[in-house]
Design a protein that fits this description.
Length: about 160
């Protein structure tokens, strides 16, 4: 007859395997969603551009030199790639809060922080699901040039990335 502890350990192991499988599926689904959002944005930009034959050459040269106006972010919006002059105001609130914490606006800030520390500073429970959500956002900010990932899972603000909105 199997022991109660053995049965519980077996169920725990099965639950952990299911969690890992679901996390992998979530990561894949987020990647697909992100690619679709990027594709939609690129197609929108291409369709919004004047056709080469519609615009005189002198005007076409001016069009490419005009500064791009970036509207404030809406929930669920994509994190843009950082470039000189881009302000944190273009980021959705969750991303701005991470940037603010790392800049020293609240919490220990001004130093490198791991995702668990960021989650706590954001007022979230330090449970795996919440920490992974913060990790996903911080990784996205790092990939797009807003943050630096000093070591795996440890993030810091890059110079010049936070301006008063």
């Amino acid at each position: 007859m199997p022991s109660m502890m053995g049965l519980l350990e077996e169920r725990e192991r099965a639950a952990r395997q299911r969690v890992e499988a679901l996390q992998a599926e979530l990561i894949e689904a987020e990647a697909v969603c992100e690619r679709l959002v990027i594709a939609r944005e690129v197609v929108g930009r291409v369709l919004a551009e004047p056709h080469a034959g519609d615009v005189p050459p002198a005007a076409a040269a001016c069009v490419s030199k005009q500064p791009v106006q970036v509207a404030a972010a809406v929930p669920g919006s994509v994190v843009p790639v950082w470039h000189e002059g881009l302000d944190v105001g273009v980021l959705a609130l969750d991303y701005r809060r991470i940037m603010d914490i790392l800049a020293g606006g609240s919490g220990p800030g001004g130093q490198a922080m791991n995702c668990r520390q960021l989650a706590v500073a954001l007022g979230l429970e330090a449970v795996p699901a919440k920490v992974e959500g913060v990790r996903s956002k911080a990784k996205r900010l790092a990939v797009r040039g807003w943050l630096a990932e000093e070591r795996p899972g440890v993030f810091t603000l890059l110079p010049g990335r936070v301006h008063d909105s």
